[in-house]
Every structure is written in structure tokens, then in C-alpha cells.
Amino acid sequence: MATRGAWSRSPWTFFGLVFVLAAPFVLLGEFSDVRLPANLPLSALQFVVPLVAAAILVGINDGAGEVRRLLRAAVDVSSIRRRIWYAPILLIMPGVTLVSYWLMLLAGQPLPEPRISWPTVLIYCVIYFIAGVAEEVGWTGYATGPMQQRWGALGGGAIVGTVWAAWHLVPYLQIHEPAWAFWQCAFTVAARVIIVWLHDNTGRSVFAAVLFHTTMNVTYSMSEDGWAYDPAFAAPVMLAAAALVVALWGPKTLARYRFSSR
């Protein structure tokens, strides 16, 4: 009988599989000039791959019932046990964006007048929530637990974040310069540490990871519709946020607040 649950998972097999399954999407983006909304390349459609890879591996090792459980976890609102955590989940990314925008102003960057289309934002929220579910079923629901068990919260998060960034690298380069891609990869690794922190402090909620992932993608897409975004400014802010989290909650678990009264 197969071992059930997270103990039977192989994150390194998962990492290899997501690159293999993403290859057709990467090639599609490389040889087609068609763009998705927010000027994304067709390779962005690889968002389905982490879900597919996780479902394949869990289905083989643990059966269809465990696959259904994995999928349900990504949309389980009740998994966020302390509602106060909705504040960092929903506000960190807008905060990072505003601080980075202020830094760009200080640096004298030529910036467009901020413009927000709320109907467009709502559409993005729906689209990117679906994409966030597909990605976080794999990155958080499948891979994060075993990686934390082996490397600790910070180490596991940094490894998953590095793989996550590498998986996005070619799509980044298909529409941006190498310097932009470098800083966006740094941003991506730091964001994964934040996601692990949110996950571990919300009862290991995959839904929390999905919501934060959604805010990241919505913010980026708004930059293509009249809002400035430059990872050379956003990445240091996100790295600083991740460093603060590590300092206050500790690298081993990211869940033991240094100044807790308990």
C-alpha cells in the first residue's frame, strides 16, 4: 500500500516534472508573438503545470482521494484560522508596490501618472485567483511541507522560491531585458519566503498562499495598464520584508514570533 499524504511526496521529482511539462508552453511563447492580457507571453499559460504535476504524483502514490483533498485545500477559506492574517496576505503586495513607487520617484525615474481601472482589477482578481490555485496546489500544497521538514522554513522556502524563479525565467526573458528578469527572480525568491511565512502562520493554509499569489499577479498586471512597476526597486523592498519576517519569526519555523507574550 502506498504511503498516504505528505510523507510520500517527492518535491525534487515534482520540480523536474514542472520543467518538463512547461516546455511546450515555453516553446509556444518563444515562437509566437501573440500576447495574453497584460502583455504576457503565451508561455504564461504554464500556470496550469504545478497543479497537473502535483495531481499526477499524488494520484500515482496516494490515489484520487488525496488529489481531491489537495485541490480542496487550495480553496478552503476556513483554513485561515486567525482572521488577522488577512491583513498581511492582502496588504503586503500593495504596500511593496507603493514603497517601490516612492523609491522610483526619489530616484527621478520617469513615471506615468498612476491610473487604476477598478473593473479591470476585478477581472484580474478572478483570472489570477484561478491561476494562483493552479500554481499553489503544487508549490505550496505539494512541495512546501516536505522541503520545510528537511531544510526548515527559511531554507525550504528559499529552495522552492529559487526553483519557482528559475521556472519563470524564460517567460520573463521573452518579454523583458535580462536585468529586469534578474531582479524579478530575486523578487520571486523573497516573495516565496513571505508565502511560506503566511502559510505557516495560518494553520498551513494553502488558500492563504493562493490569495497572496493573486495580489502579486494583479499588481504586476496593473503595471501594464498604467501603473509603474520595476523589479529593480520592488525586489529590494520585498527582500527587506522577507528579512524582517525572518528576524521577527525565526528562520527555522517562521512561526515563532520573537516578542510573543506566550
UniProtKB/TrEMBL annotation:
Domain of life from the UniProt record: Bacteria
Any GO MF annotation of the entry: endopeptidase activity
Residue spans crossing the bilayer: 12-32, 44-64, 84-104, 116-139, 151-169, 181-198, 205-222, 228-249
InterPro entries cross-referenced by the UniProt entry: MmRce1-like, Rce1/LyrA-like_dom
Every CAAX prenyl protease 2/Lysostaphin resistance protein A-like domain range: 119-218
GO BP, sorted A to Z: CAAX-box protein maturation; proteolysis
Pfam families: Rce1-like
Keywords per UniProt: Hydrolase, Membrane, Metalloprotease, Protease, Transmembrane, Transmembrane helix
PANTHER family: PROTEASE, PROTEASE-RELATED
The protein, known as: CPBP family intramembrane metalloprotease
Organism the protein comes from: Saccharopolyspora elongata
